[in-house]
């Protein structure tokens, strides 16, 4: 069973909180709130996204690189993680 399926409810809850943060930014912009307040909300949303990304990446590393059943699965898991890291760092 994949870690994203096993942790599905927890991950969805984090995405929903992130969605709420993004909607809060939209409301703040619409209400013409001061830029300092908007920047704080942006930083908070960015932190939440980074935290979610780190959690999924860590679980991918554990399940698909460190603990797979075959070397072919380990190679595939490593390849996927490398692609994600390159995209993340762009």
Report on this structure.
The chain is mainly alpha-helical and 90 residues long. It has one domain (3-88): Methane Monooxygenase Hydroxylase, Chain G, domain 1, CATH 1.20.58. It contains 4 helices and no strands. It has helices at residues 3-6, 8-30, 35-66, 71-88. Helix 2 (8-30) runs antiparallel to helix 3 (35-66) and helix 3 runs antiparallel to helix 4 (71-88). It is elongated, with a radius of gyration of 17 Å.
Keywords:
DNA binding; mainly alpha; 90 residues; Metal_Tscrpt_repr; Transcriptional regulator; Methane Monooxygenase Hydroxylase, Chain G, domain 1
Helix/strand layout:
Layout: H1 3-6, H2 8-30, H3 35-66, H4 71-88
Helix pairs in contact: 2-3, 3-4
Report the CATH superfamily. Answer: Metal-sensitive repressor, helix protomer
Order of helices and strands: HHHH
Largest sheet: number of strands, sense, barrel closure:
none
Report the sheet-strand fraction.
Answer: under 5%
CATH topology annotation = Methane Monooxygenase Hydroxylase, Chain G, domain 1
Number of domains: 1
Number of strands: 0
Protein name: Transcriptional regulator
InterPro entries: Metal_Tscrpt_repr, Metal_Tscrpt_repr_sf
GO biological process, one term: negative regulation of DNA-templated transcription
Family: Belongs to the FrmR/RcnR family.
